[in-house]
Amino acid sequence: MTDLTNLGVKDIRDGVAGGEFTAREVAEAFNAAVAEAAALNAFIVTTPDHALAAADATDAKRAKGEDLGKMGGVPIGMKDLFATKGVQTTAASHILEGFKPEYESTVSQNLWDAGAGMLGKLNLDQFAMGSSNETSYFGNVTSPWRRSGGANTDMSPGGSSGGSSAAVAARIAPAATGTDTGGSIRQPAAFTGICGIKPTYGRCSRWGVVAFASSLDQAGPMARTVEDCAIMLEAMAGFDPKDATSLKMDVPAWEAGLSADLKGKKIGIPREYRMDGTDEEILKSWEQGKEWLRDAGAEIVDVSLPHTKYALPAYYIVAPAEASSNLARYDGVRYGLRDLPDGAGLQDMYAATRAAGFGDEVKRRILIGTYVLSAGFYDAYYTQAQKVRTLVSRDFAQAFGQCDAILAPTTPTASFPLGENQDDPLAMYLNDVFAVPASLAGLPAMSVPATVNSDGLPLGLQIVGKPFDEQGVLNAGLAIQSRANFTAKPEKWW
Ligand code: GLN
User: Fold this and answer.
1) Per-residue pLDDT averaged across 12-24, rounded?
2) Less packed terminus of the chain by CB within 10 Å, N or C?
3) Which tens digits make up the pLDDT trace of 213-264?
4) What is the sign of the dihedral through the CA atoms of 25, 51, 255 and 401?
5) Residue 263 Cα, ligand 1 centroid: separation in angstroms?
6) Could you give the C-alpha distances from 364 to 293, 324, 367, 371, 437, in angstroms and in order?
7) Where in the chain are the domains?
8) What are the φ/ψ torsions at residue 284 (nearest 5 degrees)?
9) Is residue 79 flagged as an active site residue?
10) What topology is assigned to 4-261 in CATH?
11) Is 466 in the active site?
12) Is the pLDDT of residue 408 over 60?
């Protein structure tokens, strides 16, 4: 039998449906791979029994000739930002340690309904705040990738969905959920040589997803191929009356609509994305990306997104502002940790719980957020940032008058060693400079692996689409995938 852990979503689903192997065999193979990979620290908790139970249900359905579902027999990793009933859900924070929700998030429920099973809850940056996975209370995730040339330096898998990216790249999960507030699906996907798509804001329900910045948060799939992302996104998405910002739209048949033929399509190249400090090899892969899309039949056109340079500063006002409000609920009363010093009153309990429960990056964001929302500074910072957000959205709307999708790098650099940017929050924030504009505008955006750099580390290309045009994004991604022939994979050291 082929090594089942090398298979992706489509191959597993079709193999189980076709009787090549059972869902139980698949779940057992991945459970074993997960258990062997503890050195990556990709999972906060593992749930082998959940994966087995879902697999057995799929096998039983097959025996009865029933429909196995979009994800039938596929075990996946679940970012530990999604509430999972009866299974610890922490957002990688001490403040939620031990919290076992009484409910299931809509997205995870959709995946179980589609026949998927859960291998475990994946590590992430604390409350999804970070770009390297180093802000997790449960220790950083280590990327399965290492630089070629003998250096065994531990590298970052990106963040905040770093457990997801590491697990999928290491082949200990065929796919995983991610969330993207300002790049957290795309940047880790780029760092680890996998695909990840953030759909249009509102496609995936936020109900039961631990909130970071509610006007930006979107869930999406991370997998090794564009096809696998299309399949999984179809299973995750859909209108949810429990989320007031959920899109009341049918989920298109993205998998069936896949086509790498881009004839008649125009792809825009935003001139403002040629930024100082962008790695030469990344600029080269961007050029290569244009050639690939031209080869697929697209016309390449120059476009302008003039407010690009204000997007990142605006994001780092809007996101912390919303976070400071969302995180007010962690007070020692309702969830997880409670620190109640002897003889303390209610205020003391709040303060002690939050002081002990939140990590430094989370505290930094809460401080920034409360500052920019305070009476004296609201107009100077928050209102200004909201205006910039409108201008960034308008830039995209104008550019989409001239093109169908935009091609850009996903990140300004390849993955970096763990520890490298830890003392410099601004350098860390720069990682998301190419990702954040699409988040502010709520647009679908995907990262697809393009090549490896001279250190043997993956580089990703990003496609940003019009609102609701996930299909256009996936198709451009497919055109890149079929030309990039990205077959590099990390050498096993764990
Ligand atoms: N890295 C960005 C941040 O720290 C984005 C995080 C995310 O998308 N969740 O805010």
Assistant:
1) 98
2) N
3) 999 999 999 999 999 999 999 999 999 999 999 999 999 999 999 999 999 9
4) negative
5) 35
6) 41, 10, 5, 11, 22
7) 4-261
8) -65, -40
9) yes
10) Amidase signature (AS) enzymes (3.90.1300)
11) no
12) yes
Amino acid residing at 7: L
| Residue 72: alpha-carbon gap to chain centroid | 22
Radius of gyration of the chain (CA): 21
Please report the atom of ligand 1 found closest to the CA of residue 129.
Answer: 4
Q: How far apart are CA 426 and CA 131, in angstroms?
A: 11
Average pLDDT, rounded, for the chain: 96
Of residues 467, 308, 304, the one with CA closest to residue 389? 308
For the question of residue 156 being annotated catalytic, the response is no
Query: CA-CA distance, 254 to 252, in Å (whole number)?
Result: 5
pLDDT band, very low/low/confident/very high, at 150 (cuts 50, 70, 90)? low
State which of 122, 133, 160, 429 you would mutate to test the pocket of ligand 1, scoring each by most atoms of that ligand within 8 A of its C-beta. 160
- The catalytic position among 160, 161, 285, 439 is 160
pLDDT tens, residue by residue, 21-56: 999 999 999 999 999 999 999 999 999 999 999 999
Q: Is the CB of 231 under 6 A from ligand 1?
A: no
pLDDT the model gives residue 341:
84
Q: Note the pLDDT of residue 428.
A: 85
Residue type, 1: M
Handedness of CA 411, 412, 415, 418 (dihedral sign): negative
For 204-213, the pLDDT digits (tens) are 999 999 999 9
Which two tokens mark 151? 């250096």
CB-ligand 1 contact for 361 (6 Å cutoff):
no
Query: 412: how many CB neighbours lie within 10 A of its CB?
Result: 18
User: Which candidate, 477, 447, 429, places its Cα nearest to that of 169?
Assistant: 447
pLDDT tens for each residue of 412-470: 999 999 999 877 887 788 889 999 999 999 999 999 999 999 999 999 999 999 999 99
Instruction: Classify the C-alpha dihedral 78-80-83-86 as positive or negative.
Output: positive
With a 6 Å cutoff on the Cβ, whether 129 touches ligand 1 is yes
